[in-house]
Every structure is written in structure tokens, then in C-alpha cells.
């Protein structure tokens, strides 16, 4: 009888404990800031949201410059509060004289822990961006990383590697990667490296692939993505500038879309590879048409693949490369996929049309929780002193179009050399971290997405 009474009395206590636990968890999701806002150095060159410890929340890596750091910094997320890891990342190329311009996650050993690929450059004024290195840091599963860049067949380059794209290219279940060329002036044909593919072998080494191409008329081989400027009837070779990985024809295999380093046709490389042979069938897309202007006068550079018109096939967003004029703007260009990987300019996919100064980084994320990927464009403006910057903005994706939305991020956060996107507070909406280079603001970098179109600054 006593045991039964005790059980009855315990029921409301259990209920109260459950309610209390619920509200504790709910309050934790609100992420009330109670720590040092000056967590980061003033000048950051790159950033990446990544779950390094497989605990389900997003940690953060940033690349400080101008402050003597020899390594980039890892910040561990503990319930929404960031703290700098006590174990430093391995030294970057050139140490305190270097800078990281691109970070991306990769699984380089099949252990399901995220490893790191960095593009690092010589950042000294006398030799600014004249050399670069690809660095591979392997996750040791204890909060530390080990530099194993020796696994990469060729890691040092003249000029700099702008972006690294990661995915399984030869269908063997392992991550491979592609590097992009920024359009280095003065390069000979042999020096261009845009579209160079690194294939991961069973031992976790990354080797440069010899690629077989068929353009509808000719078979040819190269170690980079190359094509004839206007198709198989032209003898003018074109080299890859920007490169995007995605399954553009929905056959379950990653294809490659590449812009040219000159004013020429874009190329789509339909993936017909096997684990033992890298092979592509080349298709061509013209970069403008007579009906849907504008005519493109400069190479296309920076963008992403995303399904805009809700047909299940990835379309393409791009802009022209920057000029030396501080107040130039160029429209964002939308290209509709015909379902086979051929793209046609159709700016009716953007409402209203938007322009950029220098759209440094294009980030995808579901910012409104509707299961459609939206686009956040980090625009740093004219890339020379006095670094006046430009306003970054959001393109929300619904009803078969991208809709321009100016986020309520403070106008002072205007010169940002890129950023990072991820659901930091785990509310189902993507958030954004802005690097905010060249502005001496110790915080105001992390912005959480509201239920409406706006963002709220959080803590850092």
C-alpha cells in the first residue's frame, strides 16, 4: 500500500521535472549571450561552420590575419556558446605571413569524421597571392587535427587557388576534389590549373587525374577541364575559371559545370567516369542570348548551382568578374537548366533583378525553413583601398523564382571577404557568419535568421 502511494505522489513530481527540463532546453535554444563578445580577432579572412566532433552542433573555424597567428582558429560549440579550442590547428602555409582564403570539409579517410581542406596563400605585401598551397588536415577525433598535406600529389601552385569543390567524382564512394583558377594574368596555357581534379585512392592519397573528354566530335585528354571555345568546330582552347559540382541531369552522379577564363561558351561535363577511369562528355551553353539580355562582356566568375524553377533540376547563378572601377555593378545572371545540363540565360528567374559589385562568396542554406535552398551573397564591393564595401543580401527561393531581400544586417558590416552558413541555433533556419575583413569591429559577425526576412545579431 505504501509503495502504491509513493508511486502516485511521484507522478506530479515527474511531470514537473519533465516540464522544467523542457523549458531549460527551450531557453537554451534562445541562446542568451553571456560571454565575451571580443572572442575573435578584428580581421578574419575566411570561416567555416563544421561539426568537428560529431556531437550534432556546428563548430566554427576562422582565419585571422594581421595579428601574428600562425594557425587558423577552431571554436568549439557547447550548447550554443563558442570557446576557442585549447589544441591549435596545424600551422598554415607561410605561418603568420600567410592567409587562408578557402575552407571546406572533406572525408579523407572514410571514418565519417570531417577533415579539412584549406587554400592558403602568401599574404606578404611584397609577394601578395603570388604562391599558394592546398593543405589537408586530418581529424584525430580528439579535438585535434594532423597536417597530412603530403598526401596531395601537387599542393603548391604559382598564383592562388580560389575555390575547392568536394564530391565523389569517380563513383567509388570516396571524396575527391577540384580546384579553380582565379584567371591568373600572364599565365601560359601550360600554367593554367583551373578544373584540375584530385582523385582519392584507397590509402587516402589524392592524385591528379588524367581526364578523357568527348565533345561530340573529338576525343582528347588533359589534366584540367578544357574545351574548344565555341564547340567542337573551333580550334580555340578554353580553360576553366570557376567550377561547380552537381548532378545536373539527375542520373545520380556528380557532373561539373565550368565557366571560361575568357568570353566563351560555358561547358558542362557530363560524368561518365568509373572508379578506374575519369571520363566526361562535354556540352556547351552560350552565356547570353539576343532575347534575354544583358550581353556578357567579362568572364563569369563566382556563383552556384540551385534549383530555382521547382522542376527538380539544378539551375545556375553567376555574375561577371570584377573590374578596376570602384562603382561598377554587374547583374546577377540566372541560367535555366533544360534538364540535360545545357543552360540558357533567363533572368525572369530573379524578381526583381539584383546587381553586385564583387560577389565574393555565394552561400546556400534554407533561411526560412520551407525546405527550399535560398542564396546568401557576400558582396565586399571594390577590392581596393579605402575598402568601402557593399551590402550583402539574401535571395529567397519560392514560387519558382529567387526574390531579392535586403537583410537587416547593420550597414557597417559591409566589407566581408566571404562568410559561413549553417543552422547555428538549430531552429530549422540557416544563420550566417560574416568575416568582416578590413573593419576594426571586434564583434557583430554572427547573425541568426528570424522567422521573417530579417536577421538578429547574436553575441559575437
Structure, described:
The structure is a single chain. The protein has one helix spanning about 1-30, and strands at about 45-50, 60-65, 75-80, 80-85, 100-105, 115-120, 130-140, 145, 155-160, 165, 175-180, 195-200, 205-210, 210-215, 220, 225-230, 235-245, 255-260, 265-270, 280-285, 300-305, 315-320, 330, 335, 345, 350, 355, 360-365, 375-380, 395-400, 400-405, 420, 430-435, 445-450, 455. About 5% of the residues lie in helices and about 40% in strands. The protein has about 450 residues and is mainly beta. The strands form 8 sheets. A 7-stranded mixed beta sheet has the order 15-14-20-19-18-17-16, with no helix packed on it. Strands 5, 6, 7, 8 and 9 form a 5-stranded antiparallel beta sheet that branches. The protein is globular. The protein has 1 helix and 35 strands. The N and C termini lie far apart (about 55 Å).
Topology:
Elements: H1 2-30, E1 44-50, E2 59-64, E3 73-78, E4 81-84, E5 98-106, E6 115-122, E7 131-139, E8 145-147, E9 156-158, E10 164-167, E11 176-179, E12 196-200, E13 206-208, E14 211-214, E15 219-222, E16 226-228, E17 237-246, E18 255-260, E19 266-271, E20 278-285, E21 300-306, E22 315-320, E23 330-331, E24 333-337, E25 343-345, E26 350-351, E27 355-356, E28 359-365, E29 374-379, E30 393-398, E31 401-405, E32 419-422, E33 431-434, E34 446-449, E35 455-457
Parallel strand pairs: 14-20, 26-31
Antiparallel strand pairs: 1-2, 2-3, 3-4, 5-6, 6-7, 7-8, 7-9, 10-11, 11-12, 12-13, 14-15, 16-17, 17-18, 18-19, 19-20, 21-22, 22-24, 23-27, 24-25, 28-29, 29-30, 30-31, 32-33, 33-34, 34-35
